[in-house]
Design a protein that fits this description.
The complex is a heterodimer of chains A (about 40) and B (about 500). Chain A contains one helix and two strands, in the order H-E-E. With about 40 residues, chain A is largely without helices or strands.
């Protein structure tokens, strides 16, 4: 046992950016996701 | 009446509001009118009278900034308000959240007056790299205000804002403050959260104030510093920030490195003269000037122009046309979309640095470039550590020249990079440094006199001591920050 405290914060789930907000600035959102051209158009 | 209001330092205005001698709304409206009539291109966005930011400002006597207006560099995310970082690639972008530094100012009672123009992604020393046009220097409209926080500096000097915040990666607060005759402070790396500050070079970027005097800078720093769980590199300033009160420099030692100050190559004669006069002013109020050595400072710029582009090339990879910002695509595949978006969205200097940085980080070259530059950085850290064993502060001119003319250096990136010769080493070492206006000098090529800045650097997290000394020196110099009025 070593006399050191863990410097990492507790791993607790927290709310983050809502999906609609995350998609709000996207150039081409579709079906709740970011739509991009096909890699082989 | 409003002209008189615009001459007050922010600290004085806040004091009057607190004492009910001045109405917060009257003060804000005076600046809102001035900012709306911006003829320096200092602002990219000015507050809308009915905007939610106005309405959201709840005036509480407990808020130390009492509803004072503040100009914010357009590199800070502001929820629902356009945030471009001076780039086409972010034109019209409205972030979903607000930067911690701005939120803390708002919590302290400041109200957002406007978002200021800047070099694209903070890459530049003249504000000519903005996608939205250059900013003009209020001292001479044919001259640049410096950069990259040129809009913030010009707004404060030109009485379009009482104070402003900017960011400094290699001198982007101190150099424009110097060229516009105001105070600019780059705090210790880690003093203020970088959350919501659009990243350029993450190991160097730091937020700080641009103000008319040292007390105003201390007030803003005090409101913004602190540990933030959203930025793991933020630690805050232990013990907080004390407002400066010192009136003399008795017992303080100021170190000058002969070959890294007024005697360095490329320093204009007028700048060297003002620097020497300022050293005499230091001695006049009891300070001691001592010779020191910074043997590796001369290599700071070379190391910086490997490290900063390397970090930028990684940070700017996020602008891919997928999640936000510009997308250029007509009929191509995914790769073509990325390429067209980035080709159209980034300006020439940003592309230059992405290419430099990508090259420096490429397999087989990483050690020779990035690795070696990091070792130079460590040498510079050691230089300052040794200097601070002998002296309390290290001083230099803030920039080798006064403000230069628009277009004068745009064709020569190396000449432009030299503007930051004296400010880059402190950024590499992560230590705090302030530029205060020290006098006026003729440009090397002749013409009307322009402001000269004096830089004072201190050990990490010694901001309170630094501000105290700068305050005493500012009193001794007695510089008038008001630029001559343009002919009507």
């Amino acid at each position: 046992v070593v006399a050191l405290e863990n410097v990492l914060r507790a791993d607790e789930p927290r709310p983050s950016l809502a999906r609609e907000q995350a998609l709000d600035a996207a150039p081409d959102p579709a079906q709740g996701a970011f739509r991009v051209p096909s890699p082989q158009a | 009446m409003s002209d008189e209001l615009l001459e007050l330092t922010a600290a004085e205005a806040v004091r009057r509001i607190d004492g009910a001698e001045l109405a917060a709304d009257e003060y804000f409206e005076a600046y809102a009118a001035a900012a709306a009539a911006d003829d320096l291109n200092a602002y990219l966005w000015v507050h809308e009278p009915a905007g939610e930011w106005r309405a959201a400002a709840v005036e509480s006597p407990d808020q130390p900034l009492h509803g004072a207006p503040i100009a914010v560099k357009d590199i800070f995310c502001t929820a629902g308000i356009d945030t471009t970082a001076g780039s086409r690639i972010l034109e019209g972008y409205r972030p979903p959240y607000t930067a911690t530094a701005v939120r803390k100012l708002s919590d302290a009672g400041a109200r957002l007056l406007g978002k200021t123009n800047m070099d694209e992604f903070a890459m530049g020393s003249s504000n000519e790299n903005s996608a939205y046009g250059p900013v003009r220097n209020p001292w001479d409209r044919e001259c640049v205000p410096g950069g990259s926080s040129g809009g913030s500096a010009a707004a404060v000097a030109g009485r379009l804002a009482p104070w402003a915040i900017g960011t400094d990666t290699g001198g982007s607060i101190r150099q424009p403050a110097s060229l516009c005759g105001i105070v600019g402070l780059k705090p210790t790396y880690g003093a203020i959260s970088r959350y919501g500050m659009i990243a350029f070079a993450s190991s160097l970027d730091q937020c700080g104030p641009l103000t008319r005097d040292v007390t105003d800078a201390a007030l803003l720093l005090r409101a913004m510093e602190g540990r933030d769980p959203c930025d793991s590199t933020s630690v805050g300033i232990e013990g907080g920030v004390e407002l400066p009160s010192r009136e003399d420099l008795g017992g303080l030692r100021f170190g000058v490195a002969r070959d890294f100050s007024h005697e360095a190559e490329g320093v204009e004669t007028g700048v060297a003269e003002v620097f020497k006069e300022t050293l005499e002013a230091i001695e006049g109020v009891g300070g001691a000037v001592e010779e020191i050595e910074l043997p590796h400072a001369d290599h700071g710029l070379s190391a910086y122009y490997v490290l900063a582009p390397a970090e930028a090339s990684a940070n700017l990879a996020r602008y891919d046309g997928v999640r936000y910002g510009l997308r250029m695509n007509r009929d191509g595949d995914l790769l073509a979309m990325y390429e067209r978006t980035r080709a159209a969205g980034f300006g020439a200097e940003v592309k230059r640095r992405i290419m430099l940085g990508t090259y420096a980080l490429s397999s087989g070259y990483y050690e020779a470039y990035y690795g070696r530059a990091q070792r130079v950085r460590t040498k510079i850290v050691d230089d300052f550590a040794q200097a601070f064993e002998r002296v309390d502060f290290v001083v230099t001119p803030s920039s080798p020249t006064v403000a230069f003319r628009l277009g004068e250096r745009t064709a020569d990136p190396l000449a432009m990079y030299l503007s930051d010769y004296f400010t880059v080493p402190m950024s590499l070492a992560g230590i705090p440094a302030i530029s205060i206006p020290a006098g006026l000098a003729e440009p090397g090529a002749g013409g009307p006199e322009l402001p000269v800045g004096f830089q004072i650097a201190a050990p990490a997290f010694a901001e309170s001591r630094l501000l105290d000394a700068a305050h005493a020196l500012e009193r001794a110099i007695g510089f008038d920050t008001n630029p001559p009025r343009a002919e009507p």
